[in-house]
Amino acid sequence: MSEPDVRVDMLIVGAGPAGLFGAYYAGFRGMSVALMDSLPEPGGQISAMYPEKVIYDVAGFPAIRGRDLVKNLVEQADTFSPRYLLDEQAAELTHEHEDGGVAGTIVVTSTAGLRVAAKAVVITGGLGTFTPRPIPVGREYLGRGLVYFVPSLAIYEGKDVLIVGGGDSAFDWAVSLEGVARSITMVHRRDKFRAHEHTVAKVTASDTEILTFHEVREVHGDDEIERVVLENAKTGEVRELAVQGIVAALGFTADLGPLTRWGLTIDKRHIVVDTRMWTGVERIFAAGDITEYTGKVRLIATGFGEVATAVNNAAPVIDPAAKVFPGHSSDVA
Ligand SMILES: Cc1cc2nc3c(=O)[nH]c(=O)nc-3n(C[C@H](O)[C@H](O)[C@H](O)COP(=O)(O)OP(=O)(O)OC[C@H]3O[C@@H](n4cnc5c(N)ncnc54)[C@H](O)[C@@H]3O)c2cc1C
Fold it and tell me: Is the pTM here over 0.85, yes or no?
């Protein structure tokens, strides 16, 4: 077999909050580490779904915006210069000794063919790979005015924005864009919303125009989006609207996909682990939302603890002379 593209002590699959903190811990333990994620930016669910929301239950932060928590985690991990392999979905896993290679090495190959060799793998894959539910029309404008993830509020300054959807994300974006965008219009094909009452009330009372029973029929624009045609599905009435941005907040599907073929014990879309966060498969650990055990609580706070446990238990697997307990970071200069 040819030499892998990347060789590290530890590969972390999933650059959400658990994976990012794991990268810090692996570095603290003296390991070289790579973080692979199918999304183009780190932060997992936080970056994808709620970067502008304030989180109140992360220890040590009475209140922190999602985006800021991710920035801090990246900064903390950067102490040890992890290698980011973004836009790469981990697909295949082989134990190298199975095909005559170096014993004790795992090789993970991404969907795009990138091969990463590691002495241990920690899976922090959360819900799995996210795929946004596509907007029925105008998909060709992706990156030219159409987004499924809002990369930054600033790009909507002074623009007319259309938000499609009636769930939490749609209403959260309407709240966040208020005062940033020139105008906000929301379309939803029903008159019932799947969002917190409080947020719905806030948006209803704002300048945002909410069009229920409406659907997007056409999207136009030479290069970037310029206007849309909306139809009232009840009355058939059609109206045109000038917009420069569409936020399609129709939800995501999440799928463990290739991870289910790695010989792990899967319990309803989660990986079963023991108290060491070991999956039962040689050199593979897991942490964060993706794990399952009696009493599991899926929160950022628990993911942080679990990934510290996983990385520290992987340390003696990588180097038999290493101890599980890392010592105190406060004792290290
Ligand atoms: C709207 C909302 C609000 C929330 N508010 C809070 C809150 O206030 N407090 C709180 O504690 N929790 C909150 N949560 C939950 C919290 O976001 C999750 O518990 C947390 O993100 C889990 O972190 P994680 O690192 O385990 O996984 P995730 O954040 O899900 O990250 C997993 C990453 O793995 C990647 N991945 C998956 N499979 C692969 C693969 N095969 N190859 C490569 N990459 C892969 C994914 O792309 C993703 O980036 C909220 C969740 C949502 C949706």
Answer: yes
